[in-house]
Request: fold
Amino acid sequence: MLQTPRKRVFAGERARTLRARHGLNQTELAARIGLSVSYLSQIESNDRPMTDAVLMAFARAFPDDWADTGADDTMALLAAVEAAVHATTTPDSEFPPDAMRRAVNQQPLLATHLVSLHAAYARSQEQLRSLDDALNSGSETPLPWEEVRDWFHASGNYIDAIDRRAEAIALELLDEAGPAAAITERLQRAHGVSIGSDLPADRPLRSFDVTSRTLSVDPSLPSESRLFLLAHQLMRLELAAPIHAVIDSARLRSEEAFQLLSVGLANYAAGALLMPYSQFRHAARASRHDIDALRLEFGVSFEQACHRLSTLQRPGATGIPFFFCRVDMAGNITKRHSATRLQFARFGGACPLWIVHEAVAIPDRVLVQLAETPDGVRYVSMAKGLVKPSGSFARPSRRYAVALGCEVDYAQDFIYGDQLDVAGSRSVTPIGVSCRICPRRECEQRAFPPAGRNIHVNPDHRGVVPYTFD
Reply:
């Protein structure tokens, strides 16, 4: 039986469109895909067809949007099969690209069924996460702060209208003088706001008296925290209209949630003012996302620089897809966002093997980790414990840790991965999202069995936990 020769695929325009969408030059995209620059240039100019291996590399590097580049049905199905196989196999059991191509060409219904099964599996994992959330929260109705946190997550942690307005103000404002002096002068000149020193008896971090137009900031705060609060107040006044427009379009359930969203958007705008998008993205790429270098260059805190890196998702000029979170001493995740495939437990219960928990107990020291989730995806994680002084012996300092990380495909652009063997298995730490949805049987830190699994107890045999499960 004669086999139909494979149609040669020329996808130069699709590759160029994808590269432009992510704001990458040819050198950066070639490194991401694992090609030489000359090879990529030939593909983009349609001088060379796209081989199975190259198509698989594109699908692996851009699983969420390669199918949106206009590929034909066969290419789209092949990319979907690759994504499904890559998400459910280990590095030691790779499925060769030519085998995937044969499966798609010879058994398209079977390949489609495989993709459907993977989609069903992904939905079941999301349902388990929802169950985990409900068990931890104790309520099916989200609290106001949960609504706002989920709203930012659904927005990709990037608010274009506010980000661009803040960047425009930064360009005209922050070149005139130091940022603190420039913001203080703008508050006074444009809004009649003076800076006072008298705080209410409960000593808030920031207090604005609307009647006297006086802003007071806790003097015990570090300089970068005081600067951020000044920027917050300026953005509340200068960007009142776009902030209200975003709030009006948000579908929230309570007035408290709308008020919290207003505060969150002003905080977002303050970060965008102090770390203007294009300038910050350029500096981040130049320093390979060295957070200490970035915080010194922009006069911000370590946490603020981490958080800003997680917001670099502007269409056509995206940054590295990072996850970012903040964890307190009890392991509660008080801030979270992920532009990666890693999704956090919404209500505490994060995997104890994750480096962020160790970082909480070791302030001012950067820890790094190569972690692997049960789906076989590896992440380079950086975590640092931080202490915010209270200014008084009578008030405890705030202690927590922040974590920032990306998938290993971006490790060459993330300075914290330099000391890790990202291609090997020697230093990999297996982690999960939450014990209730983690399938690992041999975990040394398991707190309870995963949901939906039958447990088996043998009184004559005891492992780390007193049961096994299906």
Notes: The chain has 17 helices and 13 strands. The CA atoms of residues 219 and 226 lie 8 Å apart. The chain has a mean pLDDT of 84. The longest strand covers residues 378-388.
